[in-house]
Specification:
By secondary structure, this protein is mostly beta strands. The chain has two helices and seven strands; from the N terminus they run βαββαββββ. It has a single domain, classed as Alpha-Beta Plaits. The termini are far apart.
């Protein structure tokens, strides 16, 4: 299946809902978001992975989140659930993001 990986940025002083609540707007049982390093002081940026059919731009605008440019990625459909988290690979070659099994222990 195809997903979009993208960042969402919120101001620490002006936001309508927290990222955990925002991610619920993207769908149920989706991969967990992760903190995205870097950015301006006073802002928090997270990396998200959402089915390409979800209108994330509209959802982000609704809650005053700034959405980064999406990157389309092909994943195994059985990895599209909350047992996995999305991470930046920090590699110049190959895919920029990866889904990794989330260990609750």
């Amino acid at each position: 299946m195809f997903v979009n990986c993208f960042t969402v940025t919120m101001s620490l002083s002006i936001y309508k809902i927290a990222i955990k609540e925002l991610s619920k707007e993207f769908g149920k049982n989706i991969p967990r978001f992760s903190l995205y390093e870097g950015g301006n002081i006073g802002f928090i940026t997270n990396l998200c992975c959402v089915d390409e059919n979800v209108n994330v731009k509209q959802i982000c605008e609704k809650y005053n989140y700034e959405m980064g440019n999406p990157t389309k990625m092909l994943i195994d459909a059985n990895m599209y659930n909350s047992n996995y988290s999305i991470y930046n690979t920090y590699n110049k070659e190959g895919p920029p993001f990866r889904l990794q099994f989330y260990n609750l222990q």
